[in-house]
Amino acid sequence: MSRIGRQWLILTILVIVVIIPQVVTNKYYMNILIMSGIWSIVALSLNLILGYTGQVNLAHGAFFGIGAYASALLMLKLKMGFWLALPFAAVIAGFFGFLIGLPALRTRGSYFAIGTLCFNIIVTLIVDRWEGLTEGARGLMGIPGPSPIPLPWGGEITFNTMAAQYYLVLCFLLLTIFVLRRIMQSLVGRTFRAIRGNEELAEAMGIHAMRTKILSFTVSCFFAGIGGVLYASYIGFLSPEITDYHVSFDSLIYIMIGGVGTIVGPIIGTLLIVTIPETLHIAAEFRLLLYGLILIVMIIYLPRGIVGWAKVLMSRKRKQEVSWEQS
Amino acid sequence: MGTILTIQGMTRFFGGLAAVMDLSFKVESGEILSLIGPNGAGKTTVFNLITGTLLPTQGKVLFQDHEITGSRPHETTSFGIARTFQTTSLFYDETVIDNLIVSYRCRTRMGLWDALFQTGRSRKDERRCRQKAEEILEFIGLQERAWELARNIPQESQKRLALGLALATEPKLMLLDEPTGGLTEEENVSMMALIQKVRASGITVLLIEHKMKIVMNISDRIVVLNYGQKIAEGLPQEVGRNSAVIEAYLGVGYGEN
Predict the structure, then answer these.
(1) Which site among A75, A114, A250, A315 is 20 to 30 Å from A142 CA-CA?
(2) What ipTM, to 2 d.p.?
(3) C-alpha torsion sign, points B86, B87, B88, B91
(4) What is the pLDDT of residue B31?
(5) Which positions in chain B touch A197 (Cβ < 8 Å)?
(6) DSSP state at residue A148
(7) Measured between CB atoms, does B98 come within 8 Å of chain A?
(8) Quick one: pLDDT at residue B55?
(9) How much of chain A exceeds pLDDT 90, in percent?
């Protein structure tokens, strides 16, 4: 695709995305879109460490949950406002990522995957059992939504409507995309990709592998935390299941289907997997069965996901055009 | 010119096996020193000990008169020791130019904030990396393949690129592990020319090589290892006549027939 064509495409999508709440008034569909937005942020953040840096992190649900619980507790117990709790909770999630990364990122490949999976189970257990802090299985209730933002010329932005919630999530989704793009297009992002490509060689090229992986992991957990905060304040209720490894595997599936190591991939994957079963009213048990089936088919036929496959198709077409011009 | 690298009494055990035993030698600035020996003599282990991939059980490594024993691989690279691997190691899913750009990353300082806010430093560092990559592309003669994926270029180009990656880290000393492995006769000649060009640009070369024709042609001096120990050291002609070396390579009694 040419550069201008690409810019037009992005602009068109942006316009459509902004207009949606004006057209769609059905609360059910709006709910699905808001949830897709939140899960897209989580999937995108997982993609940073998993897709771009090549470290299979299976604890993303834990960091999402830590962000969610941290913000809820800050708001409920310390009476902190949403706009202060949000960055605090994200930093807490990032800090946990940093702490866990220090030992876990010393291991490679499947060891890292198993280590993070164990960490996730531990976090869920702690959240479940530490009733004094988290209310355990009863869950945290009455988590406040975002407080209104006063405008300098009078009036304020409130977040009472579905549309306002939608725009809030959209803003954070765009922020996530913006930050990830800036990182991946810079030398910092190149070092992430170098670690994925060949860690031993990257070290021989003078790249501090440990520091690079920790950085990627911390940023990844920070954004998972943001996703958690948005979830907590949107739903208003948290229970230990939201920290559990199902969340990790769900976000992994979104990435696998959309396309590992791309920006658009995780969003497309999330949209497909969140919307299609919901709109088709498929029962939960069948949904899991369907996920499994789709995943097997994807891994066999489209290992790079939908976006990866589209990229291959496009570069093939470009090559054909070039060979036409030459002949 | 002086000594650039000194190995002192280096020993490395793997379990009960001594892969390198009480090895000492010096690399002089500006020379091409070849490290040769039969398979399993411990040559690659010596490289791993110098770069910090392995820690020595005993002994010291001095680089430009500073002790660097126990430094991590990324540190030794930043000191100015670059290496290539025996199995051609590249970032295979990246283009040739991207391979070179990321290899110069260790000489730049920009961090996460510079990336997020696209500061002047980030733009300057990216420009420096690109310039370095283009400079190396020309040096190794791969300009035409700059935008191809590293996995899609011919084997000989891959070998050149691997050397280019090491060059992009701006080393003072380069450790080349069988740079001509798997190449044809003509390719050997052009790779030899490239190594000589590297030396001419002021970089000292420590070379592991199996092909005797190349070793005898290109080396200023040779160190011979067998079972982890140094059995000979000297000019190519001297080493070629050394009975211990002939014995290690061809077996006892070969010269007598």
Answers:
(1) A250
(2) 0.92
(3) negative
(4) 95
(5) 91-94
(6) P
(7) yes
(8) 94
(9) 57
- Read off the pTM: 0.91
Alpha helices (H) along chain A: 3-23, 27-47, 60-77, 82-104, 110-129, 131-134, 162-184, 187-197, 199-204, 209-235, 245-258, 264-279, 284-301, 305-326
Residue predicted with more confidence, A184 or B254: A184
Burial class (CB in 10 A: 0-12, 13-18, 19+), A7: exposed
* Chain B: residue whose CA lies nearest to A215: B112
Percent of chain B clearing pLDDT 70 (strictly above)? 97
The verdict on a CB contact (< 8 Å) between A205 and B89 is: no
Rounded to 5 degrees, φ, ψ at B223 are: -115, 130
For A30-149+157-326, the fitting CATH number among 1.10.8, 1.10.3470, 1.10.287, 1.20.950 is 1.10.3470
Q: For B202, how many CA atoms within 13 A lie in the half-sphere containing its CB?
A: 4
| Domains of chain B (ranges, CATH numbers) | 3-91+155-250 (3.40.50.300)
Interval A275-327: pLDDT, tens: 877 767 666 677 778 778 888 888 888 888 888 888 888 877 766 665 555 44
